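Ops channel
N.P.: pipeline sanity check, posting one input/output pair.
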């Protein structure tokens, strides 16, 4: 399969490109800079220059492909306004890709987040949130999956709050960077809230499985660790950086504060049973031991 990949140099995307190439697919990847182009060519991918906001380029990439994996997201989400702008940009990209792929069997795999369900781990059957700071993203993905009735083979891989590799990435990575900046390995509230996690290489294996075999209109959970307590995550970060560990205000984490404070474990039992996905890389707490002081 010749696969068009956006976001192919990010934590998830670079792993997806490597996974696809290792399993006999070819890759056409979107590159927004010379550095990204070099990285992708060195990995063995073909390159299409442009950004996620270049809708004509996205349409061209999809037209040349047998399927699409959309992972690109705006680089600036440090404020509520910037986050909203990135979500709108992603939504316009998905609309363009869907229009190009509609009416055939070419798959469109996009990324979403695992929902948070009070009192239990979220499952693949639970709907994603359509309100809150990322509600528009949830609405767009829900709309996209609903297009299966009109002939679009779209699927979503729901990612946990932390996708990690070599101690970096995701919300745990943001917690680490905040600790470096503030001098405290902090967590909101009492820290008992749980975050699910997955290694980037395991997530990439699931994207490939979904691209190859999942039916239209379905959502899958790339969850290896059902939920680590945030204070346990902060404890490893603090130890690795030599910083104190303490509860801090939600506002410390900017627009993500309310999400950081939520208890949001997630299950991948259905994904594992149906698609045969088996995570095999280090857990989050193991991987955070790679953080350098």
């Amino acid at each position: 399969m010749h696969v068009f990949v956006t976001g192919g140099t990010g934590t998830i995307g670079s792993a997806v490109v490597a996974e696809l190439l290792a399993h006999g697919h070819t890759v056409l990847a979107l590159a927004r800079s010379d550095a990204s182009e070099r990285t992708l060519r060195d990995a063995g991918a073909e390159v299409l220059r442009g950004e996620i906001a270049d809708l004509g380029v996205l349409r061209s990439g999809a037209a040349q492909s047998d399927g699409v994996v959309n992972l690109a997201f705006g680089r600036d989400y440090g404020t509520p306004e910037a986050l909203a702008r990135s979500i709108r940009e992603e939504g316009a990209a998905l609309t363009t890709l869907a229009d190009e792929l509609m009416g055939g069997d070419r798959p469109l795999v996009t990324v979403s987040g695992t929902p948070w369900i009070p009192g239990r781990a979220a499952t693949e059957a639970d709907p994603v949130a359509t309100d809150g700071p990322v509600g528009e993203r949830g609405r767009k993905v829900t709309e996209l999956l609903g297009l299966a009735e009109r002939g679009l083979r779209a699927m979503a891989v729901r990612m946990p709050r932390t996708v990690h590799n070599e101690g970096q990435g995701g919300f745990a990575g943001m917690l680490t960077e905040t600790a470096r900046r503030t001098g405290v390995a902090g967590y909101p509230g009492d820290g008992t809230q749980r975050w699910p996690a997955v290694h980037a290489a395991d997530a990439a294996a699931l994207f490939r499985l979904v691209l190859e075999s999942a039916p239209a209109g379905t959502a899958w959970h790339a969850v290896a660790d059902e939920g680590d307590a945030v204070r346990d995550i902060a404890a490893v970060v603090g130890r690795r950086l030599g910083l104190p560990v303490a509860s801090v205000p939600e506002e410390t984490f900017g627009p993500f504060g309310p999400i950081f404070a939520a208890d949001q474990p997630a299950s991948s039992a259905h994904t594992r049973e149906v698609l045969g996905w088996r995570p095999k890389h280090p857990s989050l707490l193991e991987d955070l031991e790679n953080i350098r002081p």
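N.P.: looks fine end to end. The first strand starts at residue 2 and ends at 6.
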